[in-house]
């Protein structure tokens, strides 16, 4: 059985946040506010999923 879409989006959003935070802890370039080659796509994915999750939450209200 497949998880409902909101749960799947939330899971992907939280996973992206975890991956970004883990990278950020070990990357002085990203910590200085300038995403590195690896960090840039990670933060972009996190932001996209965060925006999608927030939009879905607004629709449910």
At a glance:
The chain has about 60 residues and is mainly α. It has 3 helices and no strands.
Summarize the structure in words.
It is built from 3 helices and no strands. The two termini are 27 Å apart. Helix content is 79%, strand content 0%. The mean pLDDT is 90. The longest helix has 22 residues. α1 packs antiparallel against α3.
Low-confidence runs (pLDDT<50, min 5 residues)?
none
Average pLDDT, all residues? 90
What distance separates the N and C termini?
A: 27 Å
Tell me the helix content.
Answer: over 70%
Would you list the SSEs in sequence order as H and E?
HHH
Structural class: mainly alpha
Rg value: 14 Å
Largest sheet report: none
Report the total helices.
3
The total of beta strands comes to: 0
**Molecular shape:** elongated
Report strand %: under 5%
Summary keywords:
61 residues, mainly alpha, elongated
Helix-strand blueprint:
Layout: H1 5-26, H2 28-31, H3 39-60
Helix pairs in contact: 1-3
